Amino acid sequence: MLKDLSPLVSLCKRRGYIFPSSEIYGGLAACWDYGPLGVQFKMNVKQCWWKEMTHRQDIVGLDSSILMHPKVWKASGHVDEFSDPLVDCRDCRFRFRLEEKIKTCPHCGSKNLTEPREFNLMFKTHAGPVEEEASQVYLRPETAQGIYVNFLNVQSSMRKKIPFGIAQIGKAFRNEITVGNFIFRCREFGQMEMQYFVHPEKASEFFEYWKEQRKKFLLDVGLPEKSLRVHEHGKNELAHYAHKAVDFEFLFPMGWKELEGIHHRGDFDLKQHQKWSGKKLSYFDADRGETYLPYVIETSIGLDRLILSLLCSAYREEKVKEETRVLLALNFRLAPIQVAVLPLSKKSQLKELAEKISGSLMKKWRVEQDESGSIGKRYRRQDEIGTPFCVTIDFDSLEDNKVTVRHRDTMRQDRLSVNHLEKYLIDRLST
Ligand code: GAP
Question: In a designed cystine with 196, which of 297, 310, 388, 413 is the match (CB 3.0 to 4.6 A)?
Answer without folding.
Answer: 297
